[in-house]
Amino acid sequence: MSKRDTILQAATRLFSKKGFKQTSIAELSKTTGAAEGTIFYHFKNKENIFLCILKDTRNRVIAELNRYVEEEKFGTGLDMIEGVCSFYFYLAGKMEEQFLLLHRRHPHELAEVNPVCREHLEAIYNSFVNGFEQAILIGQKDGSIREMSPKRTALIIFSMVDGLVRFKTYNLYSAGALHKDFLELCRAMLQKKIDSGVGNSNADKNFSIY
Questions:
Q1: Of residues 89, 110, 1, 124, the one with CA closest to residue 10
Q2: pLDDT tens for residues 144-181?
Q3: pTM for the full predicted model
Q4: What pLDDT, on a 0 to 100 scale, did the predictor assign at position 177?
């Protein structure tokens, strides 16, 4: 691993656990064994380190989601909704430090004044919102999802699934314990005719939730 990557990895851990403002360059230097001068050789300042972490997180999240959607076979648009929801839970567990960082206050405060930060955050969240919207459009075409606003519904679904992940982030409740109930709720909300189960989606068996 390069020195730059070592610094980014350590900074991700410190920023996610302690917070951006509570982490000093001196502490980052001590954690990585890199002199402060070496850190500033690779990064302009602490904010630049943070933005590089967001950029890497953005690229990884989008790549992982695109790979999943391309490789998975969905029977209907409704199945795709369930699959992408489950994948979000899975990815939040796989990238726990990055999601903890995303759910802290600092990224959203910085996004108000820094357009690069805002661009990274929007790209991360929009990748899933757009995925849900695409699934809704497919479902409305194949008859598995009733008529409703695709964009607004996608935003609502994302806010729900991200809210469950935040429960886990802040150790309030286990997202996994609500996984099946959440999928049943989505199906009941979206489908034209409520049935007795959550369908033949592979959402449950493909991913372990935390």
A1: 1
A2: 999 999 999 999 999 999 999 998 877 777 767 888 89
A3: 0.86
A4: 80
Backbone angles phi and psi of 148, in degrees to 5: -165, 170
For domain 50-206, is the CATH number 1.10.357.10? yes
Q: Which residues of 79-98 are buried (b: 16+ CB within 10 A; e: fewer)?
A: bbbbbbbbbbbbbbbebebb
Q: Which amino acid is at 37?
A: G
CA distances from 71 to 26, 68, 125, 134, 201 (A): 44, 5, 21, 16, 15
Q: How far apart are CA 152 and CA 123, in angstroms?
A: 17
Tokens 């999928």 correspond to what residue?
183
- Would 1-43 and 50-206 be classified into the same CATH topology? no
Q: Which residues of the chain have pLDDT under 70?
A: 175, 193-210
- Residue 204 burial by Cβ neighbours in a 10 Å radius (0-12, 13-18, 19+): middle
Quick one: pLDDT at residue 169?
Answer: 77
Where are the chain's structural domains? 1-43, 50-206
Q: Does domain 1-43 have CATH number 1.25.40.10?
A: no
CA 114 to chain centre: 21
Residue 60 tokens read as 């990884």
